[in-house]
Amino acid sequence: MWTLTLPIYIVSINNTPEVAKKLVATLIQDLATQYNLVHVANTDRIDSLKPLLDSLVVVPQVLICSSQWTSTQQKEVLELAG
After folding, report:
1. What CA–CA distances, in Å, run from 19 to 1, 6, 7?
2. Each residue of 19-62: pLDDT tens digit?
């Protein structure tokens, strides 16, 4: 079980980084009393997701994929992150 002290790392994939930052900030704020969420990165391109994940020092536990991607693209994102 997660505790408030253990960070849960989040990566987002959204081609509008400003929107991703606002959405994730809202999520983090809304859940702050229950979880220690940390947004470590956003990528705006599917083809840069795998290199981004490989470059991180911490392993993200949550991937937020924007609804702007098609269902086919979202499946590709999940496969790359898998």
Report:
1. 30, 26, 22
2. 889 999 999 999 999 999 999 999 999 999 999 999 999 888 88
Q: What's the alpha-carbon Rg for the chain, to the nearest Å? A: 13
Beta strand 36-43 pairing with 62-65:
unpaired
Helix (H) or strand (E) holding 60: none
**pLDDT higher at 79 or 82:** 79
* Confidence band for 3, pLDDT divided at 50, 70 and 90: low
Note the helical H segments in the chain. 17-30, 49-55, 71-81
Q: How far apart are CA 78 and CA 37, in angstroms?
A: 20
Give the count of alpha carbons within 13 A of 46, CB side only: 15
